[in-house]
Amino acid sequence: MNTNNPEFIPVTIDKSHIITIGERLYTESIEFVREIVNNAYDADATLVEIIVGEDIIEIRDNGAGMDRDGLRQYFNIGSQKKLYSPKSPVYGRDRIGQFGIGKFATLSAGKRFEVITRNDDFVGRVTFDKEEWEKSEDVWKLPLEILSPDFRKTDGTTVILAGLTKKFDPKDIEAKIIEGTPLKAPHFRVRLNGHTITPRSLSGHKIPFIEGTGFGPVTGEIIILPETASSIKEFGIEIKVKQVTVRRELFGMETWGKTMARIAGEANADFLPITSDRTGFIKDSPEYEAFQNVMQLVVADVKGILQKLSGKKEGRKVSRALKEALQKIYKALAANPDLSPFGAFPVGEETRGIGGAAATPKEPGGTDQTVQAVQAVQAAQAEKQKKKRKRKPKVKQLTPNAVIKRMKFGDIGVSICVDSFGEDGTEVFSEETTIYINRDHPLYKRESSKVDTHVLNLARLITQEISLMKDPKNPRQAYERQSKLLRDAFIDKSG
């Protein structure tokens, strides 16, 4: 075996495959716009102008521009320069660009790729013509044209994609810029056809967070959107690396049902290792595992806050419906005092429920002797009612979302508690003078979807229990009493 003259086998790649690789890595040709804007950010540009025409896209910036060496690096696939110089010299920006293959992907959407750049007195133009490049067999050389310093007055770079074979919608480009570029960074602005692109702004309940890991901090803000603003297209949390969205993830929220569409926001973790196409993460890395552990805790907190907010909103809805139902029942009982288990109504006294639920105006007329006589009867009935109370209500454990109101008749009345007692629990039940309504019951859920049926259902349940309080041993008469109360509660006699 001769080892004095070793042979070598060169590793080659057909240059036409570079375009194919670029197309596969960047499934959307529009990605090249994002990459070029991010290159401008890395070059300390303060303004990037994007102009979209019928068959041309032009992107120009006022960054540092490139000299000869810079252009060589620009067309060097997979250059490590930005890894060795991770900060920009002027603004100290964390550089975003990494692989630099996106420019080759553009040739799947256009025929010619042109770069014009100025750095100090150097002005150069490189033209990447797809047809000419493919004709030159295995020679990988792009023509560099040195231009007069007057050709471009200020430092910066202009990139032109001409001979477009695909249609680019400016709205799609704007959406990509919003998602994939650091628009929130200071001293950085992007304009599209004369219009300044602004970061997406969402309104709702904001939950900022910052958590530490062994690889760096995870920061961000989760937003619980109003139901009217929930989105089925862009739900989930944006994961950003160096202020650029890599992808959205749900972190288990897919089991929440429709409520997951109310969750938006972002999580920033610059230490996450990303895939070569910048659309995902290296999931078997310890960095990604640490990030997932943090986000599971964050999402658990969000779920708790969402439940509280949903409970408060639902509580307000229940409170309004319960108030209206009690007002109607009070009116019916006032018209039918013989059906009241609490005795006659006090004359000339304003009766109030919680939040004015059973408020009624004072009745004019009546002598002092009449008032005193009725009050005496009322007092006797109150004393009798107190003697009947032998035990306290059994139900003591209520949730924080319980809605409680009291309908009062002088010193006597009934308390209504609407709370969660489980889907298998009783729809309504009473303990002494407290009526419990189960908001988890399937029938209650169905009837509470609309305001009118919600009020009617509450009135039905409350009058049922009040009628049974009058005479628990005679349910048939209780049913008849309930029917009359409901009729008088919901029929407008003045009409």
Polypeptide structure, described:
The protein has 495 residues and is of the alpha+beta class. The protein has three domains: 16-196, Histidine kinase-like ATPase, C-terminal domain (Heat Shock Protein 90, 2-Layer Sandwich), CATH 3.30.565; 205-284, no CATH class; 313-490, no CATH class. Helix content is 34%, strand content 21%. It has twelve helices and 17 strands. Strands 5-4-3-6-2-1-7-8 form an eight-stranded mixed beta sheet. Strands 9-10-13-11-12 form a five-stranded mixed beta sheet, covered by helices on one side. A hairpin with a 2-residue loop joins β14 (403-409) and β15. α8 crosses α12. The longest helix has 50 residues, at 286-335. The relative contact order is 0.07.
The H-level CATH homologous superfamily of the largest domain, spelled out, is Histidine kinase-like ATPase, C-terminal domain
Q: What percent of residues are in strands?
A: 15-25%
Radius of gyration: 37 Å
Shape: elongated
Percent of residues in helices comes to 25-40%
Distance between the termini: 114 Å
Overall pLDDT confidence: 80
The CATH architecture of the largest domain can be named as 2-Layer Sandwich
Using the coordinates shown, work out and report the CATH topology of the largest domain.
Answer: Heat Shock Protein 90
